[in-house]
């Protein structure tokens, strides 16, 4: 029999283990596919354009674009894991079995979040490893870079939970990614520094929340960016707190979990 101090966490550990095994069992889809996609980006922008274009003084285009591609892999996969897993559980109805277990809303969110963060960070590490064949990164602030990647994975794990609760169909779930996340990523400075834009568009780009994640991560790796690390971390922490609170309120109320 488990000791009293361990018993309240048994359901949490079981759910976390299930969520991790869920994406590992289909690793070809959840891990290999995004790694191949990122590798194609790296080939196009690294091997073909990397030495021919320069958008940041002192760095090749490959060096500039690699941090954005790494974080894009982290963001997309953290969001995909929590959103798809929770939505499918709602769709087929087995979420009801989970709700009768002695698991608190905080443990519920934490289990989905940690599994999603793990998937996102695994993809990010894999993309980073592959990127070494195309560009050498100076790693100006490695701890800051790791912290920003962790924050980004946490933030989009929360957003995935929120999207899974609001979506009513698979099409509506995919809209969050196709019409919100991807446009914000592409317009957030993955492929270009916003400092080269006209003043109006640069100002609008600073309203893009993903700009601070991407630029902060790039700043940590390269040592230069369009905004300060402090500003980037403040924005990331603020967004993470808002989305976590939002997700906690929805889960605590059982929003769309019982119907």
From TrEMBL:
UniProt keyword Lipid metabolism, yes or no:
no
Lineage top rank: taxon: Bacteria
- Does the record's keyword annotation contain Oxidoreductase? no
GO MF terms, alphabetically ordered: ABC-type transporter activity
Give the residue spans that cross the bilayer.
31-49, 61-79, 146-167, 179-201, 229-251
ABC transmembrane type-2 domain: residues covered: 25-254
| Gene Ontology annotations for the cellular component aspect, listed alphabetically | ATP-binding cassette (ABC) transporter complex
The compartments listed are: Cell membrane; Membrane
Q: Which UniProt keywords apply?
A: Cell membrane, Membrane, Transmembrane, Transmembrane helix, Transport
> Which family is this protein grouped under?
Belongs to the ABC-2 integral membrane protein family.
Name of the protein: Transport permease protein
